[in-house]
Each structure stands twice: as structure tokens, then as C-alpha cells.
Amino acid sequence: MAGKSKPGKIHLRIVEVMKRFPDGISGGQIRHELEKEGLEPSEQTHLDRRKRDLKKWFVIKKEVATTVVDGKNRKVTLYNYAGVRRKVVDEGQIGLKERAEVIHSARGRCQMCGKSVEKHGITLVVDHKKPRDWAGTNDRENLWAICERCSAGRKTYFSSVRVERSAGSFTRAWLPAPCRIMPLIPGSPS
After folding, report:
1. 160 is a domain residue
2. Is the pTM of the predicted complex or chain greater than 0.70?
3. By the 8 A CB rule, do 113 and 190 touch?
């Protein structure tokens, strides 16, 4: 990889908006605030990806909260700016060639549940075995091809577990999980 990446102008503008809302701000509110600052909707292309990119350079905490919208309770994700990272966490996305290699190596089967594209009509996606939020990398040995259902289950599971960094290592603080815990490795006990 070439040199370290740096946040772009739009990334920095998003961070400035987040700083103004220390109790958290939703993605829709970020978009609205940027529009109030004069950023046209056409200039906000890929805003969700840019929000995800922020965790490379900044510590962004996410929290699910309940709010009332049109008289109904709705769950929203709130983003909180918590500071600058000392070290860039991840450099870039997984390339198309590597994605193709990961999916090809799965031979048409989910590497988690074993269902096949041909027999079960699943769609395979490239996923990180160790999540990037837990310092997982884009290295080939940390990637696998799993079906969309397994990927969604893992995402739900990992969002129910808070990971804290202490003295250079990671500890897990278990929170109540809203769903059945799925095995992390094919064939491992649940």
C-alpha cells in the first residue's frame, strides 16, 4: 500500500457537524445539517460510505436510541465524535480482484452455514472473520465468503458485544444479545 490515507474535505465537514452534537446525531440529521451549510444533495453522494470511512481516522461511537417520529417510536443510530485516532486503522476497501478470489475459493458454498448457491439460492458476500471494529484487517486470511443471512446474523451478534481496548489488547464486555448467537467458525459449537 502507498502512504497513509487522509480524510477528505467532506469527511472533515461531517466531523465538524458531529462535534456540534455531543449527545449524538443521526445520519439524516448530518445530511440536513450539511444542506443547511450549503452542501448540495448532489455533493452528498456516498455520504453513508463517508460516515463509515471516518472510523479510519477518528473515534466515532455509535449508539442505537429510540426516538418519536410521526407519533411512532423509531430506532435510530446516533453518531458521536470521540476524538482523533493515533493510528490509521484500515487502509482502503477490499479490491474487486480479491473479492472475486474469496468468493471463488468458497466453491459456491457459505463458509459459515454450508448452504450452496445452486441448491439454496443464496447470495455470497465477502465478510471479515474478525470485524474491522475489533481491529480486523483486510488481509486475505481474515476474509471469507458467507451468505447474506449469516452476514446479517454476525452483524447483529457483533453489535450486541462491546469491545474495549486496554493495554494494547481487546476485551469483550458481553451485552444482552437480541438474537441467537451464531458460531464464529463453521462447525464450532454455538
Report:
1. yes
2. no
3. no
| 111 and 159 both lie in a single domain | yes
Residues 121 and 165 in one domain: yes
Residue range of the domain that includes 21: 9-84
Q: In a structure prediction context, what are the per-residue pLDDT tens digits for the chain, which is 190 residues long?
A: 344 678 889 999 999 999 999 999 998 899 999 999 988 877 777 888 888 888 888 988 888 888 887 888 888 889 999 999 887 665 567 888 988 999 999 999 999 999 999 999 999 999 989 887 677 788 889 999 999 999 888 877 776 665 554 444 444 444 343 434 444 444 444 4
Question: Cα 24 from chain centroid?
Answer: 18
DSSP3 helix / strand / coil % (the chain, rounded to 5): 35, 25, 40
Please give the tally of structural domains in the chain. 2
